[in-house]
Structure formats: structure tokens, C-alpha cells
Write a structure and sequence with these properties.
Shape: elongated
Distance between the termini: 48 Å
Low-confidence stretches: none
Oligomer: single chain
Number of helices: 9
Structural class: mainly alpha
Largest sheet: none
Mean pLDDT: 97
Order of helices and strands: HHHHHHHHH
């Protein structure tokens, strides 16, 4: 039902359906649809949700989908980085988004600098000294 409505552009109905789901379930379903169909409507649906409620979780969801299901689309990593930055800005105390930012250092395009990655890793280590991704950056 969600898939059909998104792919048909019925975002209002899809939005109503999505409100009955947990964010985790919604993200998993949208990822599955995006991988299965390769239809960019999934991203535009998330943008529609963001227009209603621009929150960190939805920006992180957009970033994840862009950097996985649509990673083959030119510019998707740049858009994904923008969404992760917005998530981090909206919820600066959640290290999940800082960890997400490190992804953009580890890709071939290296969209954040080493200095930025080190700064993020230091912030993560302050909160979670055992974080492997942050420890790798600091070595």
C-alpha cells in the first residue's frame, strides 16, 4: 500500500500510512522499495515528509537512502552529506549523526576533510571511547 502510493505520487495517502509506522520500520520499507524499484520517488517522498516536519531522523533517513540505494546516481553522496549535516545541526548531541558524517570521509570522493573527520572522531570518543570508527580515524 505504501509502495503503491509513493510510486503513484500519492504522497498524502503515503504520508498517512507512514504515520502509523515506526521510523525504523518506515526507513526499512523505503530502503527496500528504493533498492527494488530504483525509483527516485522514494527520495521525493522523504522530502515531502521533511517539508511537514524537518527533523534529524528524517534527514538521516534521506542520507541513508541516498548513500545506499541511490549511490549510483551522480551527486547522491553530496545530497546525502547535506542531509547528514542537517541531522547533526538539528540534534547536535546525538553522536549517531556524527558517526554518519564519518562515512563521507571514508568514501573515494572523500567529501569531508581529514581535519573535519578528526574533529568529529574526537567528539564521538568523548561520548563513546570504544567507538571503533572514531578510533580508526584518530590512529
Amino acid at each position: 500500500m505504501l509502495k503503491h502510493n509513493i510510486l503513484e505520487g500519492n504522497f498524502k495517502i503515503a504520508n498517512d500510512i507512514s504515520k502509523k509506522m515506526s521510523l525504523n520500520d518506515l526507513e526499512n520499507e523505503l530502503l527496500e522499495i528504493a533498492f527494488e524499484t530504483d525509483n527516485i520517488s522514494i527520495y521525493f517522498f522523504i522530502l515531502d515528509l521533511l517539508n511537514e516536519d524537518a527533523n534529524a531522523e528524517l534527514h538521516e533517513m534521506a542520507s541513508t537512502i541516498l548513500s545506499t540505494a541511490y549511490s549510483h546516481v551522480v551527486g547522491s553522496y553530496n545530497l546525502a552529506l547535506n542531509h547528514m549535516r542537517k541531522a547533526m545541526y538539528l540534534d547536535p548531541h546525538d553522536i549517531t549523526y556524527k558517526e554518519g558524517m564519518l562515512f563521507f570521509y571514508n568514501i573515494p570522493e572523500q567529501l569531508i576533510t581529514k581535519a573535519q573527520a578528526i574533529e568529529l572522531a574526537k567528539e564521538i570518543i568523548k561520548i563513546n571511547p570504544e567507538n571503533e570508527r572514531a578510533k580508526e580515524i584518530l590512529q
